[in-house]
Write a structure and sequence with these properties.
- By secondary structure, this protein is an alpha+beta fold.
- The protein is built from 21 helices and eleven strands.
- Strand 3 (69-70) and strand 4 (76-78) form a beta hairpin.
- Helix 1 (7-18) runs antiparallel to helix 3, helix 14 (252-264) packs across helix 20 and helix 17 (290-299) runs antiparallel to helix 18.
- The protein is elongated and about 80 Å long.
- The mean pLDDT is 93.
Length: 379
Amino acid sequence: MEIFINKELKRLVRLITKKSGKVYAVKDFALSEVLKRFGFDSLTSNLEVEIYGISYNDFKNILIRLGGQEYRDGSFYFAGADIRMPIISIERSAREKSLIFDSFFLDLSNGEVIDLFEGLIDIQQGYIRCTDPDIFSKDIFNFFRAIQLASQLGFEIDKDILDLDWGFSLAKIKKGFLFAYWKDMLLNSTKPSVGMEYLHSTGLLKRLHLEIHDLVGVGQNPDWHQEGDAWAHTKLVVDAGARICRAHNLNEENALVLMLSCLCHDLGKPVATKVVNGRISAKGHDQHGRLPTIKFLKTLGINGTLAKKVSVLVSEHMFTHSNTFTTESVISLAKRIHPAHIRELVYLSEADCMGMINCQKDNNARYDLLGLAKELGLD
């Protein structure tokens, strides 16, 4: 099966193959290509390549002749690919990649897949396993990688991984990593709730993001929310947001605003929720949600325009539940949520509604608001 790579890399593959060497794509690129053969959407992938079966000098001479660059750590860069020449066997290299889904070797000369740990079966059965528990547990980022793939693919993480000690130190986890991690999970998963629930069930959510974890166990009025607590509702809303992003073909910037707003929209409920005359009420939770939203976003290193947009959308997301909108109220709303837009608020409201088992009958109200905003040039 032909692998679509650029002409420069194809030339490198041909020259190395003539010397009886092997050129394999590994990790993200290999996994993405394998998944496509099973009907899955392509995952975001960097092209990492490993070379075997050729002497180091022969390989280096070919690569340098073609214009490749050598790094200080012995790796190379050429034609969009990060290239390494491991001194260990393919079998050992595959095992040290820790997750079975990262252990595929994809032959760039003919498309053949080398699968040493029955990962193809795992794809069909929907399980994420590790190559070696001892190797897996040495790196805390392997745990996050497992959750990331579970969220992207909607797969289950194998019990052997879940039974490992997840109580590792989080000192290595930086804001930049957390932002990239959440961004990837929210934008590249059809059901981000899968990853969210694994973060919760493994205890990572409580240790990393108390603002999000505090939604767990917060009761909701069953007249509107038969799906369960605020955490259950939020997961449904985030999944709905992912569907809306795809339905409206939102670009990355707009999709990130919506998905973060979906995640944070009810962060005010832990403070605002009370029992009044025997009924659960969360009056004012939208306004109460602004500060915990800003606090959560700071843990990801998010500030500036993105933080402003998300926080104002959270604090105004109940506005759309009104059934009457006037020109004055829409103009006032547009000013309050700037730099966000009314269309973004309507998308958030739609996701909020889709996250309820018994969705509120306010569909027309949302689009009445959007229609009026369009007439005023404020959508």
